[in-house]
## 1
Amino acid sequence: MTKISNLIIQRFKELEVQMRTIQMVGGHSDDHANHEQFYAWATSALNVIQGSFGTDSPHYVRFQKEMSSISNNLVWTNHFSSICGIFLGAKSDIDGGYLFDIERSTSGELFGDLVETAKSALAEGHHTVATVLACAALEDALKRYAISQGIQVEGQTMENVVNALKSKGLVSGAQKSLLSAMPKVRNNAMHANWDKLTPQDAGSVIGFVEQFLLTYF
C-alpha cells in the first residue's frame, strides 16, 4: 500500500471519529447539529472526498447536493444523517480498496504521457532515450499492477516481478512471451549499455507498454 493510500485511509478514519463527536442541540422536535462543529467537519470531509474520488463521483455530487439543501445553517437530523451516510459510503469504498482503482487510473494517465514522450524521441531518431523512457514506464506499471494484485515488489528486480506475475497467471499468451524479453532490454537501458539497444527495441517496449496500459490501467 502506498504512502498516499495510507494517508487517505487515515484521514477518513480521523474524520469518522470527528463526525461522531458532533453534538445535536435543540429539543426533541427540532434537533439539529451544532453548526460550528458540523461545518468544520463537513468542509474537511468534502475536501477528502473530492481529492479521493473527484468532483464527478456520486459521493461528491450527493454530498454537495445535501449541503446545498441546508438553509440558515440549520442542519436538521435528516440532513445530518444523510450527509454522514454519504461520507461513510465513501469511507467504505476507500477501506474496500477502491482507492487502488483511482491510483491505477491516474497512473495510466501519467504513464501514457511518458510513453508519448518516448514515441516522440523515437520519431526524432533518439532511440536510446525512447527506450529508457519506455522501460521506466513499463517497470513502474508492472510493479503497480503487481501491488494491486497483492504481490510484494519492494526490493525486487523487474525480472522477479515479471516471474511473479507469470507464476500467478496474471499475464498469459502472446503478452507473456513478449514480457519475458523486456527485462533484458530494461537492463541494457538502465545500465547504460546503449550500444546494445536498437530502434526495434524501443519500438517493441513502447508497443508493449501501450498495450499493457490499455489492458490493466
## 2
Amino acid sequence: MPVVRGCELPDDLFYDVPNNLWYRPESDGTYTVGMTTIATGMAGALVAFTAKKAGKVIKEGKSVATVESGKWVGPAKIGFDAEIIAVNDDLSAAPKMANDDTYGQGWMVRVKPVDEAAAKALLVPGTAVAAPYEDKMNADNFAGCAA
C-alpha cells in the first residue's frame, strides 16, 4: 500500500487525485466513492456531511456532497458525469466516520458513470498514485497525515 507523508492510499482502489477522492469498482459497474486520508487530514474532524440525492445525475466537476469540518466547508467534486445510485446515510448521521474509517464505513456515495471509458481514463490505480499525490501535496502545501 502506498503511504505518502503518513497518508495511506490502499493499492486496490482507484483515485481522482485533483479532487482527493477514492473509488472502489463494484461488480455491478458502479463505484463506491469516498474521501482520501489526505482529504480528511486537510479538513480535520468532519462535523457535517450532506450528499445529493440518489437518482441525481452529477456533471463532471460538480459536487456529489458537501463536507464540513471545524475549519473547512466545501464540495466533494466528482471527476466525471455519473448518476448517484446510493448515499451513505450513516455518514450523514456520524460524519466523523470519514475520519475514523474513510476507506470502509466512511464512504460517501455509490455512483454509476455515464461513460465508463471517461471514468477509467481519469482514475489513477492505487499502485501508481504515490508520485501524483506527492506532487499534489507539494502544490497544496500539505505536510501530511502524520504532521
## 3
Amino acid sequence: MKSVVARSLYDYWTKLRGQRPAPERNEVDPAAIRGLLGDTFILEALDRHTYSFRLAGTRLCAAYGRELKGRNMLDFWSGKDRESIACLLAAVVEDGAAAVFGLSATNERGQIMPVEVMFLPLHHEGPNHTRILGCFAPMDQPYWLGLYPVVRQPLQSLRLIWPDEKPAFLLNTEKVDGTHGGSPVRHDPPPLRFDRRRPVPPQASGRVFRHFRVIEGGRSD
C-alpha cells in the first residue's frame, strides 16, 4: 500500500479483527479513525451486482461532486474494469480477502489524479462479509479536487491480499475433520470464482492467482 490513508485504515482493521477473518461492523468506531473519515466509506453487499454506499466521506463525495450514499459502487466503471472490480468485491465478501487497486481519476478537462482504493471485509449477519470498509486515497491533492468532478477512473492495478496468508476456500481444504480407512478426510475445494482474465501490471509483486496478484501475508508495506 502506497498511501498513508490506506496503510492506517488497514492497520486499524487488522487490530480490530485480531485472530478472526474480519471484525464486526458494529466494532468500527468513527472516533478511532477521525482523521481518515473524509476518505473512507462503507458498502453494503446486496448481491453480486450491487454494492451500495451506506456511508461516504466528505472528501470522497467532493471528488465526484455529489452525495454517494445509496449509489452502486460498480456503476463507476463499465466493461472489463467493472468485471474486475466485481471480482475483487466477491473475493472480499465471500472469501475474506482485502483488496487494493489503483486508478486514474480523471475530470472532464482530462486532468488526472492517481488514487489508491482499498476494500476490507466486515462481518454483519449471515455467513458472508456483507459490509465493506474502504478508502479512496488520492496520491496527491491537485488544486481541482472538489472543483471539477471525476468523470472517468480507468484501473491501473489490482491486488488481493490474504491477511491470513491463504484464501478462506484454500484453508478449508486443509482442515482435517476425521479419518476414513486410516487416511485423513479433507474437504474438496469449491470451484474458483474468478473466470475472466485480466493482465496483471508488471509492477505488482507476489504470485499470480488467476488474473489477480496474490500478496502473501497481511503486511501493510
## 4
Amino acid sequence: MDRIIGIDYGKKRVGVAVSDPLRIFASPLDTIPSAKIIEYLKKYSQNEHIERFVVGYPMNLDNTPSEAARFVDAFLNLLKKQFADTPVTLEDERFTSVLAQRSLIDSGVKKMDRREKGAVDKVSAALILQTYLDRSNSKMVTFV
C-alpha cells in the first residue's frame, strides 16, 4: 500500500513519521542521523511504496523562512534528486516541537524518556504529517 512519509529535518537528526495505508493517521516511525536519512528512505522504499513526502518547513511568525530553512532547502534538493518521481509537500512546522513535547507529557511518557531529543523529533514529524493528512482528508468529505 502507498504511504506518505512525514519528515522533521534537523542538522543533527531527522524525525520520520508514516501514514497508515488509508492515509488517515500519522504515526512516529524513527529518528535518523541527518547524514543517513537518504539511505534510510531508500531502504524503506524497498518495502513500502512512498506516495509523497511531507517535509516540515521552518517559518518565522511573520511567514518568512527562518534561518534553519537553508538546511531544509539543501535537504529538499537532495531528496528531489534521489526521489525524482515522488512529490514533496512543504508543511509549516512552527510550534511542532512544543506540541510534540506536550503530546509526550500528555501521553504519560516519563520525564527521563522525554529528554531523549529523538522522541520529540519523530513526534514532530507525525504532527507535521497529521496536519497535512487532516487538510487533505477534509477536502474529500462531502455532505449529502
